[in-house]
Amino acid sequence: MKIACVGGGPAGLYLSILLKRQDPGHEITVHERNPAGSTYGWGVTYWASLLDKLEAGDPESARAVRENSVRWSDGVAHVGDRTTTHHGDEGFGIGRGRLLDILTERARSLGVRVEFEDEVADGAALPDADLVVACDGVRSGVRERHAAHFGTETAFGRNRYIWLGTTKVFEAFTFAFVETPHGWIWCYAYGFGDDRSTCVVECSPETWTGLGLDRADEAEGLALLEELFVKLLDGHRLIGRATAGGSAQWLTFRTVTNRTWSHGNVVLLGDAAHTTHYSIGAGTTLALEDAIALADALGGRTGSGQAELAPALAAYEKVRKAELLSVQSAARHSAQWYENLPRYIDLPPAQMFALLGQRHSPLLPYVPPQLYYRLDRAAGRLESLRRLKRWLGPRLARTLHGSGTRS
Known about the structure:
The chain starts with a strand and ends with a helix. The protein has an eight-stranded mixed sheet with strand order 3-5-4-10-11-12-9-13. It has a six-stranded mixed sheet with strand order 6-2-1-7-16-15. The protein has a two-stranded antiparallel ribbon with strand order 8-14. α1 (10-22) packs parallel to α4 (96-109), α3 (59-67) runs antiparallel to α4 and α10 (283-299) runs antiparallel to α11 (306-339). The radius of gyration is 22 Å and the shape is globular. It is built from 14 helices and 16 strands. A hairpin with a 5-residue loop joins β11 (183-191) and β12. The protein has helices at residues 10-22, 48-57, 59-67, 96-109, 141-144, 147-150, 205-210, 218-228, 230-233, 283-299, 306-339, 349-357, 369-381, 383-406, and strands spanning 2-6, 27-31, 43-47, 70-79, 82-95, 113-115, 131-134, 153-156, 160-166, 173-180, 183-191, 197-203, 238-239, 254-257, 262-263, 266-268. Residues 397-407 have low confidence and may be disordered. It is an alpha/beta fold and 407 residues long.
């Protein structure tokens, strides 16, 4: 097959690796609009289960990813002057730029053409290929050509956030909540290398405007955030961009969904197909899992024509949509937890952090926080209560959501 991947992020690169390993005869080109070494991100997170999947797909790139990642097992939350620590599952962080370098090098070693500064411009013809994979991100230009067919819908979150770096190296996944005269502002921070960490700052729109962050330029905004998080940063600076050019921007999160993921010989992958709120740290993992599922589906085709491709693309979409249901639900509830932060912020630290860990629950928004905390602790001891919680949560959420929609 002749395959064109439009977008040189982790999903497109890893798909090209898997397909070349399946059949070295594939002619695969990755078209990346940005220069080599240019990336908008800092570090990305993933969990041990992804490493197992990468190992099964391509042991060589999996080994390089593991060797270039940092690990943590603790979560730390600072709420004003209060601090609490939770010992949990092992997590990993890796620089997005380093991850792209690893995957690019591996793809090229297998014979994939990776072309930088090669943009498929709006209105230009798509690459001549048996299969065109749209892995060009949340604002996918390829997807937008046929948005009506894909049934693309975009919903915007309420809170504002900005993606930053810092020279402070965090050894645990760290949350910090700071109260200001205009409301709470908080960040998630985690290390991804020997000298860098990611620091995502979020707040309500009222806090954002009250602090003047809507009017500040990048330097002024970073200086204000460094002052607000001075204890957390311990004298270290915040950095606006991972590479030269442009500036860090305050955003509202876009939740993108598509009714269908393929159109003729074009198929959506990663953020072009779906997005999940950054607060669950799953974006890169889900994109790579998309690539694995698409490669598996294509491996079972009988030819390169559209008649042979259509069933494979349909199977890929069916599998991934089913696997994404629980993750997308968790992401929605996680985003809502932060949008309703005042409901939880005054709890005792241990309770607040416990409910932070439970923010994916569909039951939590409808139960008084302290009652939920007591029920959750009791459920941890009694299997019957665990079963009741699993049964009741989704049903209550659907009922209350439906009544709210009708009103």
